[in-house]
């Protein structure tokens, strides 16, 4: 929907996928009850992720990582890829030397992840604490990347200002020369895995009239093995 004709100051007003009656899409695929849930949010996420993959959800591993810088409280968000899931939490990989997210996490280890799977009308929210993976553990994933991506991890000074693309190309060429003829490339010391250890995980299933089913798993400390499960108002 374009701007509201009665108020030209509103450049966008109640977008609804072209519906002339300003009614956004209703969610009607499914529902979620307490009996559907597994005791562990990690196991529940794994189940939902497998279902999303089976339903051909486009890139179900894509997730919004939100961070906040302390003391200003400035919030940043970006799309990253979930690369691993284990019993401790959710693992992503990135530059932890120069990136904005690195600066944020260094000041505040609390982050959130948001997964949105529109084909299934499902959303998962994760809030938790971060920990860096060891270089040895990160190297395992790094070795699975294509060579150009491994070179790129070395070359990119993520989030730093570039004068032009040629400057980046020169940085890549420098790294290419450094590792010329070398198939086994070591992981950069500033790059690697970050595990998000959850304290809260919410599973959201869309329903009609915006009366969504929402359940959250919560615990007070990452050492707690028991999770409290609560239904939330939509």
From TrEMBL:
GO BP: pyridoxine biosynthetic process
InterPro entries tied to this protein: Pyridox_Oxase, Pyridox_Oxase_CS, Pyridox_Oxase_N, Pyridoxamine_oxidase_dimer_C, Split_barrel_FMN-bd
Domain Pyridoxamine 5'-phosphate oxidase N-terminal as annotated: residue spans: 57-177
Keywords on record: Flavoprotein, FMN, Oxidoreductase
Annotated metabolic or biological route of this protein: Cofactor metabolism; pyridoxal 5'-phosphate salvage; pyridoxal 5'-phosphate from pyridoxamine 5'-phosphate: step 1/1; Cofactor metabolism; pyridoxal 5'-phosphate salvage; pyridoxal 5'-phosphate from pyridoxine 5'-phosphate: step 1/1
Gene Ontology MF term list: FMN binding; pyridoxamine phosphate oxidase activity
Cofactor(s), by name: FMN
Stretches assigned to the Pyridoxine 5'-phosphate oxidase dimerisation C-terminal domain: 191-234
Coiled coil (residue ranges): none
Top-level EC class: oxidoreductase
Pfam families registered for this protein in UniProt: PNP_phzG_C (PF10590), PNPOx_N (PF01243)
PANTHER family with a match to the protein in the record: PYRIDOXINE-5'-PHOSPHATE OXIDASE (PTHR10851:SF0), PYRIDOXINE-5-PHOSPHATE OXIDASE (PTHR10851)
UniProt protein name: pyridoxal 5'-phosphate synthase
Lineage: Eukaryota, Fungi, Dikarya, Ascomycota, Pezizomycotina
